[in-house]
Amino acid sequence: MLKFLNNRRTIRKYKEQDVDNGLIEKLLEAAGRASTTGNMQLYSVVVTKDEAKKAELAPTHFNQPTFKNAPVVLTFCADYNRFNKWCEENEAVPGYDNFLSFLTAAIDTLLVAQTFCIAAESEGLGICYLGTTTYNADKISDILNLPDYVVPVTTITLGYPDEAPELTDRIKVGGWVHYEEYKDYDSADIKRVFGYKDEMEENKKFIAENGKKTLAQVFTDVRYKKADNEFFSEAFINLLKKKGFLK
Amino acid sequence: MLKFLNNRRTIRKYKEQDVDNGLIEKLLEAAGRASTTGNMQLYSVVVTKDEAKKAELAPTHFNQPTFKNAPVVLTFCADYNRFNKWCEENEAVPGYDNFLSFLTAAIDTLLVAQTFCIAAESEGLGICYLGTTTYNADKISDILNLPDYVVPVTTITLGYPDEAPELTDRIKVGGWVHYEEYKDYDSADIKRVFGYKDEMEENKKFIAENGKKTLAQVFTDVRYKKADNEFFSEAFINLLKKKGFLK
């Protein structure tokens, strides 16, 4: 299993081949064995295969080729709606209209999403997470017709791999594990943890392509900009309010 | 793999046997292959084995026997601190002092946490997630000495299993998968999805023990109460502000 996990790759290019709904449900069933808070299973998954629906969703994922090219898209949603309805049908008054409950449901949802991915990869499928989900969760919510207490948390594209990419780099475990207490990073630590990235040819190329001086500047000035982060923060907070998770 | 995932159990009772740090780091290494936003790896893990440190943490997890009994505890933290420092060391101005960035880091963190659990289980270890982490994240943060831009998201207890519990129930995939659009649940759907729970002997016993009329009331009136959720919501939001993720 460790060898399998250590060799996984995110797949962004898929064969045209469909993924059978029976297989998707089998993978979801295994994913559903992940730990869940109080066995409440506070998630729902919306499977998108229909071309018209995909075309509606595409702009919310910035029309990424990965999205457009994928035969299947799964939107994993934090869902207290179903549980609340169960409470109401059973003479109980739910008290989940608050931020903690959103967080609880989001955690449940992400454990299922990741277990789904590992299950899918073990069956020869490839996946890619779309971070755009939290950017445009409000628009995705409208398109997928999500009711109150249901918020998209992440999206996965799924299909049979049509590429075999190299393993991407990772900082070493020593760079992110702490024993007993968090030991903050000084200048030398940062160099020790991240330094190897500066030496990578592909990063040098990436910096040049973006007309920047350092790799970090590509992140702060091009890929994940403050103004965008603030704009999408506000949109997500407004969605939490609209869906009933924040006053 | 599916068989393995379908048969996993949460383990709450552990042998006294230590878990070797070398093995923990091997598992973390495999976990670190999980997808991560822009390869930023926005997480840190604090490993707790020291009895004094465990005793400090125990009340934040309500002194659960699972916590006290575990030889190892891992606190998984959303971490923008390391990345921010890297930016600052590289002539870049980080713009991650906002809610979206917390959410991004929390997602990264949970994918790693869940991959770690699957890796650990595949090596014969047992795990239990502690939902108390988001309740007392502020106190945990103080005890683990977490700096700004680092917030605990989940905790896992780890050890060699000293119990062999039954599989817990799950609602069927048909109860939480939707095709193309979310189909909201009516009264009959709720009965179809959750109805089996009412028939379970252990649930009938659980309802009686708690002096309630329905299982849902045990959740709303005993286990996950509105007043508690609101109290812990405020604490977590305050922590996000304190750590720099919310204005």
Count the E strands of chain A.
Answer: 5
Largest sheet geometry of chain A = 4 strands, antiparallel
**Low-confidence runs of chain A (pLDDT<50, min 5 residues)?**
none
Rg of chain A, nearest Å:
20 Å
In whole angstroms, the N-to-C terminal distance of chain A is 44 Å
Report the CATH architecture of the domain at 2-166 in chain A.
Answer: 3-Layer(aba) Sandwich
By helix and strand content of chain A, what is the structural category?
alpha+beta
| Overall form of chain A | globular
* CATH C-level category of the domain at 2-166 in chain A: Alpha Beta
Could you tell me the mean pLDDT of chain A?
Answer: 98
Strand/helix succession of chain A:
HHEHHEHHEHHEEHHHH
Number of helices of chain A: 12
Helix content of chain A: 40-55%
Let me know the CATH homologous superfamily of the domain at 2-166 in chain A: NADH Oxidase
Oligomer: homodimer
- Range of strand content of chain A: 5-15%
CATH topology of the domain at 2-166 in chain A: NADH Oxidase
